[in-house]
Amino acid sequence: MKIYLAADHAGYELKQVLLDHLKELGHEVEDCGAFEMDSADDYPDVVSAAARSLSNGVAEGLDCKAIVIGASGQGEAMVANRFKGVRCALYYGPTEHAQRDMAGKELDMLASSREHNNANALSLGARFLDTEAAKKAVEVWLKTGFSGEERHVRRIEKIDSLT
Question: Is the pLDDT of residue 26 over 70?
Fold first, then answer.
């Protein structure tokens, strides 16, 4: 799988670690920046490069995803979700309370973003995750597939029709 990876200055160090980790896991990784530590850089510039590449890859039917990293991940997710075909989920660590479905089954936030929303981009909050937690989160997110359930397909089609 091809993964587009981007981070601003707040996520730069974590991006460098994840770049190597993703390659060790066997993924083809395209570094979309930042290419050096610059405390004055702006996350829309680097995140848009990864999101645009993902959007183009989705349109071409490629097996690809994006991971974007910033201080909280909030703005990065907002930028990524501006691009057609990109469904970016935000993760900055485990929640205090368990997430449950309508039947009361406990859900994992990362897995749910893939199983239910078929998220193809993940935004990480670097100031909320240590390196090992970020690695584990990426592994869980990448290994989890989309359920393909009709209700989820229907909802994603509605999301995608909005762009």
Answer: yes
